[in-house]
Amino acid sequence: MPEGDAEPSAVDPAALRRENEERGLARADLAADPVTQFHRWFDDAVASGLYQPEGMVIASASSVGEPSARMVLLRGVDDRGFTFFTNYESRKGHELDENPVAAALFAWHTIGRQIRITGPVARIDAGESDAYFASRPRGSQLSAWASPQSAVVDDRAALDARRVEQEARWGDGPIERPPFWGGYRLEPREVELWQGRANRFHDRFRYRRAGSGWILERLAP
What we know:
Layout: H1 13-23, H2 34-47, E1 55-61, E2 67-73, E3 76-78, E4 81-87, H3 91-98, E5 101-108, E6 113-123, H4 126-135, H5 138-146, H6 156-170, E7 181-186, E8 190-195, E9 203-210, E10 213-219
C-alpha cells in the first residue's frame, strides 16, 4: 500500500452504497476468515475512488487505561495482522509499548461500511521497518528524523530548522531509518463488519478468534 492517493474511481460510491443498503449483508456473503474479507471490502473502497481508504483510526490506552485515538495509514495486511508505522517515542508509541493492545477502525461512510479490529500489538522486526522506510519518499524520510513526534515545540520555525538540519546532515546520500521509528502489527482477535441499512437497522457480523480458526456471529445493530 504505497503512500499517495487511491486509484481513480471505477465504481460509483453512491451507487455501491445504495446497493449495499438494499441488498444487505448475509453470512453467505462473507469469507471464512476476516483477512480475506478485509481485502474484499478494501478493494471495493479503492475501486470506489475513496480518498486514502487505507486511513484508519488507531485507539490505544496508557498503562492506567487512559485512551487516545488518532488517524494513521495502513501499510500492510496479511495473515499475521495489520501493519502501520510511527515514531516509537510518540504518545501512541509509548502507549502501545506500555499496554500492547489496540483497536483499529476503518470508516468508509461514502460506501456505507465500517470495519473494527481489536487485538494485541507488537513491534515488527527491524528488517521489515528498514525495508519500508527505504521505500518512502525522501521528504517523508527527512520528516521522520526532524519531528520529535508528540513533543512540545516552541513554534513552526523550530520544526523547520530541524528539517533544514536533517537535509544538511544527509545531503544527497541514502537516509537511514531512525532508531526511534518503525512499524507495529495489530494481530486481529476480533474483527467486526458493519454495513449500513435503512432506518438504522444495520447489518453487523463479528469474527472471533477460536484456536486456529474463527467464529462468525451476527450482532444486533
